[in-house]
């Protein structure tokens, strides 16, 4: 087992909409999720983030728990509509004040704040005005919002994540239609994703131009994959999976380009490409100065050839009934199939710690940049025992194996900055409500006081941090 660097960022993560609550407090504007979650049938069991874990009002209690856990870092997102209620225009001083209080309290407790600028809560005003990410205007408005945050918090925040999982929110919003704005249009998916890449690029360059002493990158949901067999057809399917999936997402952010084979595929489908030559100049300029790659890793995929009359995109298992996830893919290219060599969660997510090592080594080879694991964790049905304890040994086993994989990747030359678990407290899951729990801290969502109870994994992670990864 490798020795982790003494400055390794042991931490945990969250997102504003999933924890803050206080949906209209102190001048906060309305986000697309504030609207979407109240539309009938759009969320699991009608859950919403109006209250969530009430972190906005209980952040002091939560930071005290982080201190008790020994966190070295805490990754959280800023709610765009707390800073700019309408997405642009007048700055809401109460929003600035809240994040200043949170950042200062973290620093006072020796916890490094890692700030995410966008974790899916687009201002509803911009969606109504020009369809949000469908318009290139979003790039300019987002960059202006980012500059406000840099000026307000950049003297203390040394790690910035511009975008969180742009590949997920655009895919769920414009291909599958299960996130706002609920559309099914592949051309719009490509267009909106490209606009996130431009927003990332402009924001990175703006940060560098401001001369702030910190590091900046974005976080992509990264799912490495294996070919199901060594056949030529399945190997070709694996290449298609990477070029249309991970490399399409990551190359645009970290090379300033897209894989040629993927462009050829979309062109063959008569989909007009959403970019201009000048876009790549900006994207490449940002790729040359970006500081790190953020990845959210949960699982791997196993890929097989998918005939032209094969399966299409299928819905997620949101029930927690193991074994109900169907095969999914792109006809004529690839499909994801069950991997017989590994176990799966109740939500049919592949449990593959070595896939993290494998993926990190792939990223090192392709981009040669430092990497931050901005999310990794296990969603499960946690229960409180008769003595009031939450014995989540399964989560400990999961995290232990993934941290060991991090050490193995470091031994293979990966420059790993830190490891953020998802999540610190239980929180609202976008597609699974409050039943799918990820946190070190149990939140009693059935009670009015939202009582916090540290789980067994809380105390285990505290020892891991205390010993810098030796007490696994």
UniProtKB/TrEMBL annotation:
<feature type="active site" description="Nucleophile">
    <location>
        <position position="375"/>
    </location>
</feature>
<keyword id="KW-0326">Glycosidase</keyword>
<comment type="similarity">
    <text>Belongs to the glycosyl hydrolase 1 family.</text>
</comment>
<dbReference type="InterPro" id="IPR033132">
    <property type="entry name" value="GH_1_N_CS"/>
</dbReference>
<dbReference type="InterPro" id="IPR001360">
    <property type="entry name" value="Glyco_hydro_1"/>
</dbReference>
<keyword id="KW-0378">Hydrolase</keyword>
<dbReference type="InterPro" id="IPR017853">
    <property type="entry name" value="GH"/>
</dbReference>
<protein>
    <submittedName>
        <fullName>Glycoside hydrolase family 1 protein</fullName>
    </submittedName>
</protein>
<dbReference type="InterPro" id="IPR018120">
    <property type="entry name" value="Glyco_hydro_1_AS"/>
</dbReference>
<dbReference type="GO" id="GO:0016787">
    <property type="term" value="F:hydrolase activity"/>
</dbReference>
<dbReference type="Pfam" id="PF00232">
    <property type="entry name" value="Glyco_hydro_1"/>
</dbReference>
């Amino acid at each position: 087992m490798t020795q982790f660097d003494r400055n390794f960022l042991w931490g945990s993560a969250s997102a504003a909409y999933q924890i803050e609550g206080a949906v209209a407090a102190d001048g906060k504007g309305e986000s697309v999720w504030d609207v979407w979650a109240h539309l009938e049938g759009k969320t699991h069991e009608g859950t919403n983030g109006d209250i969530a874990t009430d972190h906005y009002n209980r952040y002091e209690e939560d930071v005290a728990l982080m201190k008790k856990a020994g966190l070295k870092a805490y990754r959280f997102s800023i709610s765009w509509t707390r800073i700019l209620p309408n997405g642009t225009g007048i700055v809401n001083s109460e929003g600035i004040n809240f994040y200043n209080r949170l950042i200062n309290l973290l620093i006072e407790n020796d916890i490094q704040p890692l700030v995410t600028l966008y974790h899916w809560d687009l201002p509803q005003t911009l969606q109504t005005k020009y369809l949000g990410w469908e318009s290139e205007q979003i790039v300019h408005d987002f960059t202006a919002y980012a500059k406000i945050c840099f000026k307000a918090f950049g003297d203390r925040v040394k790690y910035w994540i511009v975008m969180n999982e742009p590949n997920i929110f655009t895919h769920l919003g414009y291909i599958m239609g299960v996130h706002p704005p609920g559309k099914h249009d592949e051309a719009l998916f490509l267009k909106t994703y490209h606009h996130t890449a431009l927003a990332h690029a402009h924001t990175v360059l703006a940060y560098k131009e401001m001369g702030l002493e910190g590091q900046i990158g974005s976080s992509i949901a990264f799912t490495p994959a294996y070919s199901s067999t060594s056949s030529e057809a399945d190997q070709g399917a694996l290449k298609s999976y990477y070029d249309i999936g991970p490399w399409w997402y990551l190359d645009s952010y970290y090379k300033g380009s897209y894989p040629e084979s993927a462009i050829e595929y979309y062109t063959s489908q008569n989909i007009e490409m959403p970019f201009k030559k000048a876009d790549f100049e900006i994207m490449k300029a940002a790729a040359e100065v970006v500081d790190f790659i953020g990845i959210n890793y949960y699982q791997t995929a196993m890929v097989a050839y998918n005939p032209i009359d094969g399966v299409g995109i299928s819905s997620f298992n949101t029930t927690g009934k193991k074994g109900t996830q169907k095969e999914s893919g792109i006809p004529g290219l690839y499909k994801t199939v069950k991997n017989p060599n590994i176990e799966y969660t109740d939500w049919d997510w592949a449990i593959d710690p070595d896939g993290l090592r494998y993926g990190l080594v792939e990223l090192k080879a392709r981009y040669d940049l430092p990497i931050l694991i901005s999310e990794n964790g296990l969603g499960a049905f946690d229960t409180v025992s008769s003595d009031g304890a939450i014995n989540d040994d399964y989560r400990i086993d999961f995290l232990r194996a993934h941290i060991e994989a991090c050490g193995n990747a470091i031994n293979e030359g990966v420059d790993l900055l830190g490891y953020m678990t998802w999540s610190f407290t239980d929180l609202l899951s976008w597609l699974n409500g409050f039943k799918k729990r990820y946190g070190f801290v149990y939140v009693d969502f059935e009670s009015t006081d939202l009582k916090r109870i540290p789980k067994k994994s809380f105390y285990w992670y505290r020892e891991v941090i205390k010993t810098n990864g030796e007490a696994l």
